Structure formats: structure tokens, C-alpha cells
Amino acid sequence: MTAYQQMIFVNMAVNDLDASKKFFTELGYTINAQFSDENTASVVISDAIVAMVHTKERYAEFTKKEIVDAKKSSEVLLALSAESREKVDELVEKALAAGGSLAGETQDHGFMYGRSFDDPDGHTWEVVWMDPSAIEG
User: Fold this and answer.
1) How far is residue 129's CA from residue 114's CA, in Å, rounded to a whole number?
2) CA distances from 5 to 2, 11, 83, 116 (A)
3) CB count in 10 Å sphere of residue 93
4) pLDDT in tens, 8-29
5) Is the confidence at residue 102, as pLDDT, over 90?
6) CA distance 118 to 58
7) Which residue in 9, 20, 90, 119 has a CA-CA distance of 20 to 30 Å to 53?
């Protein structure tokens, strides 16, 4: 019997759904058409991580709270692991080429390496590699 793998669905409001779909596919992720429509795109990041990008109108159906402008306010920092320092750089460079912008300084602590970018809507994504031998088990 296969063990249950918990998933995370990150929901975000975006200004231009088509632009967001283009951005994320240029990073190498896929859009799951089964859970996408004219107001939502299901961006498959991994088997356990899905970013649900919604028009602001659709996102408003899920909350009674004010929807923040992610270019002006920060609510969360989204962090993704990478399998190597090179993969950190590769993903951040793809994000910059696809219309993202740098969101901070490179963090290099030897055993841990990270960079961050803002997507076109201002959501901050951190990409981090940690040397497996530095993790206590």
C-alpha cells in the first residue's frame, strides 16, 4: 500500500491570468487543464505542490478579506527546494527571463544557498538548496 502524500495548493490572485500561465510554463511547470478554466489555472509544480492562480474576481469567491496588492504588501513568502545550487540559479534565471524580478540578495551560507524572485504579480518565491549532509537525521 502506498503511503498517503499530503499536498499543498497555494492559491493566489493575479492581474492577468494568461500572463501568469505563460510565466509559470516558461519556468517549466505545466497547467492541469482538468482544474483550469477562464478564471483559474492549476499550475503543477510537483506531485505534491500546485499553485492555483485565479483572477481577482474568482479569488474573491474564496474569501471575505481584502485582496492585497502583492507588489505593495507581503502576506507570505513561498519557498521551493532545489536539488542543487545550479538548479537554484537555473530556476531564478528562468523566472527573470520570463518577466519576474529579483526579490533579494543571494544567500550563500556554504551548506545552504538561496535566491528569490517576484513573479509578475509581486508574489515572492524563494528557491533554496541545502546540503543533505548538513541536515541532521
Assistant:
1) 6
2) 9, 19, 20, 27
3) 13
4) 999 999 999 999 999 999 999 9
5) yes
6) 22
7) 90
Sheet with 30-31: strands ordered across: 8-14, 49-55, 40-44, 30-31
Q: Which residues have CB under 8 Å from 121's CB, separation 6+?
A: 12, 13, 14, 15, 20, 70, 71
Name the pTM for this structure.
0.90
Alpha helices in 16-55 (DSSP H): 17-26
CB-based contacts of 47: which residues, under 8 Å, 6+ apart?
5, 7
Query: What single letter denotes the amino acid at residue 42?
Result: S
Q: Is residue 120 within 8 Å of residue 134, measured between CB atoms?
A: no
Exposed/middle/buried for residue 70 (C-beta within 10 Å: 0-12, 13-18, 19+): buried
Please report which confidence band the pLDDT of residue 137 belongs to, taking 50, 70 and 90 as the band edges: low
